Amino acid sequence: MMMNFASVPTLDLAMLGLLVLAWVASGWVSEQPPKSRPSVSWLMEDYRRDWMRTFVTRQPRIFDATLIDSLRQGTAFFASACMIAIGGGVAVIGNAAAVQRLADELPIGAGPDVALKMLPVIAFLANSLLKFVWAHRLFGYCSILMAAVPNDPADPIAFHRAGQAAEINITAAKSFNRGLRSIYFALAALGWLLGPWGLLAGTVLATGVLLRREFASHSRRVILAREP
Fold it and tell me: What number of helices (H) and strands (E) belong to the chain?
């Protein structure tokens, strides 16, 4: 099936633009929140630094090794899931005729071909895959830096090495969060199968869920309570 980009209606293009804008804006607000209302992602950066400072004096360090391995396994799981989802999306594009016949029976599904509508979904999933792969590698770097922290807390480089590990850990977490965010918007992009208004609804829903979890969730209130 040939994909005709010139046939995409203006309304659909506008909704696609809004989807991309919401994706970029939600990421920027989450990573650069106002000082008066920090996001969960921003708050967790301080906890990661606290973790590495505590790591210097913790003996033995088996818990820390297990935790960093768990973080790597999480990124590997999502990377594998994205690869499978991308394969499914490519399969739909390769055999879009059957799906297109079903879509043609739905008035709300009229518009561009199904194969064309799957492209934003695959693009978001591809971005997620790249972010998860990079996060996995960064968590690996973090584990090496942690292994380089001397066992003696009095060693002059102990806290310096721990600080380096903390910053790499934070960078890995940012990449992981960006991958998750792209998955949310890949799901939002599926709304285009229902037409431009379905795409709008998916965009609003994904953005609302992300912002609520970053700025108005119960977990955020718990994380804010740093002192007993």
Answer: 8, 0
